[in-house]
Amino acid sequence: MAMDYVATSKKILDAVGGAGNIVSATNCMTRMRLVLADEGKASDDAVKAIKGVKSVIKQGGQYQVVIGNEVSNLMKEFNKLGNFSEDGGGNAPAKAEGPIIQRLFGFVAGCLTPLLPAMLGTGMVKVLLVLLSTAGLLSTTSVTYKIFYDMADSFFNFLPIMLGWSIAKKTNHSIPMYMVIGAALVYPELITLLNPLGSGLEGVTYGRFLGQECAYIFGVVPVIKAAYASSVLPMLLMTPIMAWSEDFADRVSPNVLKAFLKPMIFFLICTPVVFIVIGPLGAVVGNVLAAAMSAMYNTVPWLTVGVLSAAMPFIVMTGMHYALVPLSTLNLTTLGYDVIVIVTMFCSNICQGGASFGVAAKTKDVDTKSEGIACGISACIAGVTEPAMYGINMRFGKPMIAAVCGAGISGLLAGLTSVKGFVMGGSPSLMSLITFVGVDSATTITNPYHGVIWGAVCAVIGIGISFALSFILFNDKDAGLAGEVNTDGIAAAHAALAGEEHVKSASGKPVEIDSPMTGELVALKDVPDEVFASGALGEGVAILPTDGKVVAPCNAAVTEMMDSRHAIGLVADNGVEILIHVGLDTVDMGGKPFTYHVKPDQEVKKGDLLITADLDAITKAGHKLYTPVIITNSDDYTEILPVSGKTIQTGEKLLTVK
Predict the structure, then answer these.
(1) Nearest-angstrom CA–CA distance, 235 and 163
(2) Is 9 helix (H, G, I), strand (E, B) or coil?
(3) Catalytic residue (choose from 28, 450, 494, 554)
(4) Mean pLDDT across the stretch 646-656?
(5) How far apart are CA 634 and CA 578, in angstroms?
């Protein structure tokens, strides 16, 4: 009988303490994952008694309700009962845990991840336009090019506004008010007023403060000229200030006036803070950095290129790279070449792409693989690094380390071989290698293609190093993409291996499943693990193996495999879903005693070798060898009958599914 999703949702909501007790609600492939404000208000017995609920697991701060393959449909109805979301819905967000750096990167990633679809899409449009214009198929002065380029560039230009939306959503504050602060940073009139590369607005009196050109708010307070388009740091730094300002405005505003007084107070506080203090920080630091880099380049130019290449992603992230543009322009005018921006950004941009490609090659998550490839192409071909930098490398942390290392080494080589840029050619990328064609009178180099040749070598080395390091350092599990894997390795195996879709058996005939291993038969209820013994993951039987070979119990397709290699999921040709879990808690062994002999989605025949396991190593590590063989879609069948007897050989009949 089909589950009544509406009725079941209401019962679960009541049993866990009501909508007010839910901080966040999401689901994996088999479980509802709830974060409760007070777990003491939830009744485990009441939840377990609800028809359709298989078990309750409390782990990692989550109240997990095991449902099975119908959980996604159930969640659609459950979410209608309250303003639930992955980041907290309408209630207070869960307190972040872990080292402060990890929490900061997690917060930044959480704010940028919702922007990925727009970021990736507009980035790839720019790639297409670069390819078409380079091939001579589309003129950069045509209306078609201009419309599509400006559309794509609009996302990056108005990034502070987008961040206002995502930050407010994540912190559960006013989305429109946060977006206004972002909009102010990129408002055309204010851009002209505070443009560090322009003359400013006519009629405005400018002065100097801390060595920087500035305008004056209230007639006396300096506002340093700076550019904020494509910058993320001002809005991120404003997050705690905006949160405090909104809460303060809410407290001091009488209810009868709150509709207009609260937002007015918010804007009166946040506007001067962002323009006087937070925003100009990048400009001041950028100008100091530019002066320092200029002095350093005059002393040790080759080292400067390496250091600046490695630091460039963080400079771009803060918007401080605008402070380097005048220095680059001055170099092109007086020296005839530049390395401060053209070469260092070239090395940095392509390495952002290389690290992104490394993630794409390593991950088993389909969405992340697709994003990694798109981000890599965007950075390497078009020089549009925001998707790679924010969507992949900074989001997962370790790939950013790879990109920085690759850029540093690539830049060091570029400096040693005197690679120089002779013209501005848009955002530096592989397509801009042509800007390295030329010679300068200050060196003995006479080959005009010297820069192109060594630039290509630097690109190969930089991309190669960042790709390799990213591939080595990145791990799906560390990145949170293996979230279905829990430390007990039991409920996790089912969550990771049981697919949302399965093919129903078209026949009412009994189905026979053979034994995948040789050993002693053990009733599932006698397995010393509550989740398996209770049948929460499905019915079946366990084997105490005497041989470490695991073979296919029938003709089937491999649906899921795990990094720890201790379990495998199959879907038989007749629609029966099978989980084979070698040992108890063996996920903790990190895959060391296990070897897979098949690949994901591979079709296997009965008797094909799936896994080999070192039983002695498992035993010595203190793990029990019980190997459950579970029919994870047991609810689709009327009866699962294990064979009788004490021992069984590989290939003998193990289960009859009716």
Answers:
(1) 7
(2) helix
(3) 28
(4) 91
(5) 10
CA quadruple 532, 633, 560, 492: dihedral sign: negative
Mean pLDDT, range 124-140, rounded to an integer = 82
Phi, psi of 628 (to 5 degrees): -70, 140
- Helical segments of 279-416, H only: 279-299, 301-318, 325-334, 342-362, 366-377, 386-388, 394-396, 398-416
Is it the case that residue 217 has pLDDT exceeding 80? Answer: yes
- Which residue, among 432, 461, 582, has the nearest Cα to 517 in the 3D structure? 582
Q: Judge contact between 558 and 578, C-beta under 8 A.
A: no
CA distances in angstroms from 46 to 8, 57, 58, listed in the order given:
12, 14, 15
Q: State the Rg of the chain over Cα.
A: 30
The per-residue DSSP string of 128-193 comes to HHHHHHHTTSS-TTSHHHHHHHHHHHHHHHTHHHHHHHHHHHHHTS-HHHHHHHHHHHT-HHHHHH
Q: How far apart are CA 350 and CA 313, in angstroms?
A: 11
> The whole model's pTM is what?
0.50
Assess whether 405 carries a catalytic annotation. no
Cβ partners under 8 Å of residue 610, min gap 6: 516, 550, 551, 552, 558, 568, 580, 596, 597, 598, 604
Name the pairing type of β-strands 22-27 and 31-36.
antiparallel
What is the pLDDT, as a whole number, of residue 329? Answer: 61
Angstrom distance (rounded) from CA 430 to CA 208:
40
Reading the block at residue 407, the tokens are 């850029």
Q: How far apart are CA 349 and CA 131, in angstroms?
A: 17
Give the strand order in the sheet containing 627-631: 603-604, 556-561, 567-572, 577-581, 627-631, 539-545, 519-523, 647-648
Q: Compute the average pLDDT of residues 627-643.
A: 87
pLDDT for residue 384 = 81
Query: Which of 171-185, 388-402, 491-505, 603-617 comes out lowest in average pLDDT?
Result: 491-505
Residue 354 and residue 462 in contact, taking contact as beta carbons nearer than 8 Å: yes
3-state secondary structure 605-621: CCCCEEEEECHHHHHHC
Q: What is the mean pLDDT of residues 217-244?
A: 86
Q: How many angstroms from the chain centroid is the CA of residue 366?
A: 12
Query: Per the residue annotation, which of 173, 321, 581, 623 is the catalytic one?
Result: 581
**CA pair distance 286, 318, nearest whole angstrom:** 9
Q: What is the pLDDT of residue 249?
A: 92
Name the nearest CA neighbour of 465 among 338, 615, 300, 351.
351
* 320 half-sphere exposure, CB direction, 13 A CA radius: 22
Q: How confident is the model at residue 60 (pLDDT cuts 50, 70, 90)?
A: low
Pairing mode, if any, of strands 594-596 and 609-613? antiparallel
- Residue 95 confidence (pLDDT) above 70: no
> Which band of pLDDT confidence, cut at 50, 70 and 90, is reported for residue 37?
confident
DSSP-derived secondary structure for 199-267: ---TT---EEETTEEEEEETTTEEEE----TT--HHHHHHHHHHHHHHHHHHHHS-TTTHHHHHHHHHH
Contact 579, 497 (CB under 8 A): yes
φ/ψ (deg, to 5) at 233: -65, -45
pLDDT of residue 89 exceeding 50, the answer is no
Share of the chain above pLDDT 70, in %: 84
Does the annotation mark 581 as catalytic?
A: yes
**pLDDT at res. 39:** 85
Q: Is 350 exposed, middle or buried (0-12, 13-18, 19+ CB in 10 A)?
A: buried
pLDDT band, very low/low/confident/very high, at 585 (cuts 50, 70, 90): confident
> Could you tell me the two tokens for 168?
């407010």
Question: Does the pLDDT value for residue 210 go beyond 90?
Answer: no
Q: Of the candidates 283, 284, 293, which has an alpha carbon nearest to the alpha carbon of residue 345?
A: 293
